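Sequence in, structure out.
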Amino acid sequence: MKRKIAALCAGIVLLSGMQFSFALDKTDTYFDLKKYDLGTEHNDVQHIQNALRKAGYISINELTNFYGAETESAVVKFQSDNGLTADGIAGRNTIEVLFEKGYMGEINDLMLKPGDENPSVKVLQESLMALGYLDIDQAIEYYGKQTTAAVKAFQTDQNLDADGIAGTLTLNALENQGMLFLSRTESELEAEGQVSQLTSVGTITKDMLIPGDRHQDVILLQKVLVQEGLLVADQATDVYDNHTEAAVLAFQEKYELKADGVAGMETIAKMIQLGYVNQVQIVSRQSSERRFGEYLSWPTVMEMIDKGKTVFVIEDFNTGTTFKMLAAYGGVHSDVEPLTLQDAHTIKILWGGEYSWVRRPVLVHLNGRVIAASLNGMPHAGMDDKPEGQYINVRSGGYGYGYNFDTVKGNDFDGHLCLHFKDSRLHANRKIDSKHQKNVRIAAGLE
């Protein structure tokens, strides 16, 4: 499963002055697809197989990402025993019961260490037993010497620091193998340092800043350098002085850019990619020409989507340019792919001729409705020339080994983009992305 960490999310919908609360269930939180049936090839399948193995409905030595006849038969038996429709399809109801009965192991701790005693230790032990690292009769809630030795052996095989402590890298490795789900709260993520603390400083208007320049963009440049810890705040002015030049050099060296002390296109593009600054769009339409979209929450939109089949018509909010995208994946937001080669070309042109992580406000046309949304412009997590669902060593956007999230072939587009709606969240940490949400509000006419 491409998402590595999760926290159960909740939101509020406002309607006619009344408040209604909703919560994403565990199927939405942890799984990409709405259902899994015979022939499905997806890395979520290994979690289903592991749960069925824990429950005693399937006997397999190695988990796979293929939903075959043996998995289907095990699901039928589990459904029949638990009062569910015995159709062999692992949908929302079946997965939720697997969670309720404790077969889908969740760990709620960022770190487990020798001496710990809690339910998460039992999940850890069950995972290590299933992988053959721990030989005990029954998993318990105490982290003792045998658990420590098993963790060290697992860490060694995963090329991790073999300290016997199950930290996030170790727990993530177990999650990647379908053994457990790692659930973390926002406060825990912040304590761990995995929640991005950077702040967008504004919109930059120039594609080059050089020593000696005096311009409002220099202030934005300096704010970025302050956030990077390369410039102290009291040295920030609107002048590109020696302090700024030295900080730019340090920034360039840090990100392996051409180190010349000049904030040129490559350096500014990196700051855009990191989310520090936006860039003025060359083509725009007048405010009077713009329409606005409905401010619909992601759970509402998700019910309107049939993953792998629904096609969005996307309208760029700033220019009115339209293109089509397939709603291919996504549980906490929609992962979309350009439908054709021409659609991919249109997207690249909109992003200034180069793909980037910059977010743009967009309008999504779906079932006769127009919905406010935000789209980034960096293809990631897939390769167009490799089969969808295959595990590959290199994926686009800097993603390494993993599931090839690329459904549409022949569009010269490696992977997919992230399409966010109101209250949607990031895959990586289940946090709401403030930049995406700002764009959604812009597209809805609220900002």
